[in-house]
Amino acid sequence: MAIACVATRASLGVEAPAVTVEVHLANGLPAFNLVGLPEASVREARERVRSALVNAGFEFPMRRITVNLAPADLPKQGGRYDLPIAIGILAASGQIPLTSLKNREFAGELALSGEVRFCPGLLPVIVAARRENRELILPLANRADAELVDYPAIRLCSQLVHLVAFLHGQQPLPGLEQGTEWLEEQAQASNCLSEVTGQYQAKQALEIAAAGAHNLLMLGLPGCGKTMLASRIMGLLPALHYDEALEVAALHSVAGLNIKPNEFHRRPFRAPHHTCSAISLVGGGSVPKPGEISLAHRGVLFLDELPEFPRKVLDCLREPMETGEVVISRAAAKLTFASRFQLIAAMNPSPCGSAGTGSRSSPEQISRYLARLSGPFLDRFDLSIEVPPLPPGALTQTNQNAETTETVAKRVAAARERQLARAGKLNSELNGKELEQAGFSRVDLEFLEQSVNRLGLSVRSYHRLQRVGRTIADLENCPNVERKHLAQALGYRAMDRLLASLAQQLV
Predict the structure, then answer these.
(1) How far is CA 187 from the centre of its chain?
(2) What is the chain's alpha carbon radius of gyration, rounded to the nearest angstrom?
(3) 76-134: per-residue pLDDT in tens?
(4) Could you point out which of 112, 211, 247, 271 has its C-alpha 20 to 30 Å from the C-alpha of 295?
(5) Are 328 and 317 in contact (CB under 8 A)?
(6) Which of 262, 339, 258, 249 is nearest to 301 (CA)?
(7) Are 243 and 298 in contact (CB under 8 A)?
(8) Do 207 and 404 meet the contact criterion of CB atoms below 8 Å apart?
(9) Can you give the three-state secondary structure of 9-75, one letter per residue?
């Protein structure tokens, strides 16, 4: 019976479910039917496969060809099915042995000449094949993805002729020649914290945010150094572990982006423009792709000029900031993308850039400007600080005693190690029950509760202040959280003070 089954994998978010390409040759008028819920890009594989087989010197069977992509209820898109369809036709027509397909998976796009071309989003396929312990045939152009996973049972091909010769046992296909040792090298951060003049309180808040993965909001006049400070946080964060880096690389691969090998262990830093849409920020589309918050997974999402973002776009961040994932529901599928990111934002305190004396904006104008940010969204920030303008003479003074990024990064790494040793997670991820065992005294918690009630803050802010206080204590290597740590955490509430002062002016 002229039938062959070839194993491959589909794309479903960051997952790669198994797909079986079934090829059947029957008598009758020559035809090429492709079934199994293929989209337009997959249906076009009929002409690509036909031309590739003929131009590579193989016989295209003049019979009734039926190709089924099972399971039939799973949508298929992209050119990754070209190679398994061509291999299935060759196997069904007896041009390659059926035994050569056992325990092997194929993925790749074919050119009309028989060349095997690069296919985007194959990193989840490699991870799934490694989990199933199956040999995987990939395009040679996807070598970088294969080296990131470092799976030895991978064969790379550039021409269909070479692959057929390999399946006949006539010649070998190249595999991976080296391991992942070269991935350990990471470029040093080019921006040093010592280059920032003054702003000692802002630097301290940046250190606290980096140590506990807290969300940070910076308010200040234009040109006071907010963006410069935000870019320096990447040098304070430790490198990703291999499993974390592979998780980040899979998200980028699904989005059609490639991570450079020397940046594999580096945390992502995403800074979208304020004109971005909700879909580009959160993810989605007709074929759901990860958004900026998922591309910033395990890293930093920086939003500059925060009030210029549409309010409905910012409110889309509220749920992912709490859950660490975003769920995109469509009629065909329901996809989940990881989005455990650290949010750093910067904004001006008023439309004209300044608040208080000398401001060209009235309290009503400032209030309308700040009303672009909803209260529940602002409640997601652990720290909000004011970045003041530099005092006269600060720009001409030498900054010899400023700490370097390397010095601060060592303290951040030590504080993170204490958090992981105590709870197995960072302080920003602690829930209410875990905070009860984080070293707080009852008297200090009563003090914090009274302060929260006096300031009119929410219960969420109460827990966030506890987490910030725990991080400050970890930076000082204190086993218990003292009242001074909670008082310092209460000092990082610049946005609440600004809104309170505006409310008094408007009365």
Answers:
(1) 20
(2) 28
(3) 999 999 999 999 999 999 999 999 999 999 999 999 999 999 999 999 999 999 999 99
(4) 211
(5) no
(6) 339
(7) no
(8) no
(9) ECCECCECCEEEEEEEEECCCCEEEEECCECHHHHCHHHHHHHHHHHCCCCCCCCEEEEEEECCCCC
